[in-house]
Amino acid sequence: MRTVGVEEELLLVDPETGDPRARSAAVLAQAAQEEPDQDVFEKELHEQMLEFATHPQSDMAALRAEIGRCREEAARHAGEIGCTVAALATSPLPVSPSVGENRRYQWMARQYGIATQEQLVLGCHVHVSVADDEEGVAVIDRMRPWLAVLSALSANSPYWQGTDTSYSSYRSRVWQRWPSAGPTEVFGSAARYHRRVADMVATGAVLDEAMVYFDVRLSRRYPTVEVRVADVCLHADTAVLIAVLTRGLVETAAREWRAGREPAGHSVSLLRLAAWRAARSGLTGDLLHPAALRPAPAETVVRALLEHTGDALADSGDLDLARASCEALLRHGNGARVQRELLERTGRLRDVVVECVRRTQG
């Protein structure tokens, strides 16, 4: 069974006011002091962000437990220096992001200007194991039409600098400001994939291979494909759903490749529109159906994803979990809907953040 690892980026905030706090260096120092051998938490582009990565897991219950434990540990370490964490993909409250001091981040600040300053956005990245680069690229080619559905399910960023953006996932729109971000054309082989990455680095517009921000890419460090389209999810159970569906998509794509089925030939321009539609409406309106990239109700598209991955999900024992979690999201809403309902009830974005802190830890 394919293993899955999840990386989550969390927002550091004041526990009383909800204001973002630029304290990641202090949190990491606290974590290192308590656990000198820990390799779970990492710095990110901005000092208001803290990232953690789970270990590879094949069992989804074990993955859920580890995500919960990492969130609790992040909150505990942050609490030692007077702040806490929130699984919010953008800050609902106004913030002046602080770019980290290391050489890489400062290069990005010089190269991209205000676009770097604005990238205080927090995602959920899912790694799924593959046999080799050939299988990985075959998977990348065949997953493309379905990625926008993952974005809609995970959408958790309706607010930006104190304003309702009218988007469900505004994080994904900000992320597209990187010149290397977004959907890709069909590569057809690992050799073509690696040649494209090398050509992009050779332009000098990106620093290195790590800055090739494809929606799905081969990992540089692990034998995995890395899917990068999801917002960080407010609830840990939603993060597990995204991991389950991602593994299902990878396994389904690999089976199609082995059976000789060609990938859909959807153009990058249409895939960008599908991603925009998912970011705009989330689960509250139409999405573009991956088969023909024409509008269909979100409920129809989500159920099409379950049908598309059904055999793989059944074989891994995840089908009932995926169905139940998708039905719950369609009924109760993703993180974006929850945030808007909280604001309607409380009337203050600060109260939204404080409640989301509570929900981050379950």
From TrEMBL:
Signal sequence, renumbered to the chain: none
Domain of life of the source? Bacteria
Which Gene3D superfamilies did the record assign?
3.30.590.20
* Class in the EC hierarchy, top level: ligase
EC number(s) for this protein?
Answer: 6.3.2.2
Catalytic activities: L-cysteine + L-glutamate + ATP = gamma-L-glutamyl-L-cysteine + ADP + phosphate + H(+)
Question: GO annotations under biological process?
Answer: modified amino acid biosynthetic process
Question: What keywords does the record list, in alphabetical order?
Answer: ATP-binding, Ligase, Nucleotide-binding
Function summary: ATP-dependent carboxylate-amine ligase which exhibits weak glutamate--cysteine ligase activity.
Report the protein name in the record.
Putative glutamate--cysteine ligase 2
